[in-house]
# Entry
Amino acid sequence: MLTTSERAFADLVYADPEWVSAEFEAIIDATFGTRPRPRPRPYAVTAGYPEPAVLRGVRRAGSARSRQRSPPVG
# Structure
């Protein structure tokens, strides 16, 4: 429960939403600094040409599913 003085302080702070927004932005900027540069976009594959691994008939490591083999029978 808030005391009378705490409630009055909260009312004073929230009376100006632009000030609250500016203070919030200042806190975030001071904490995190500037925004990082965006990552470069990957090169687009030209239409009509499949990836080189597909041309050679080689599977990429991420696309091959691994399976566990059972012991030999007998």
User: Anything to note?
Assistant: The helical segments are 4-14, 17-32, 52-56. The longest helix spans residues 17-32.
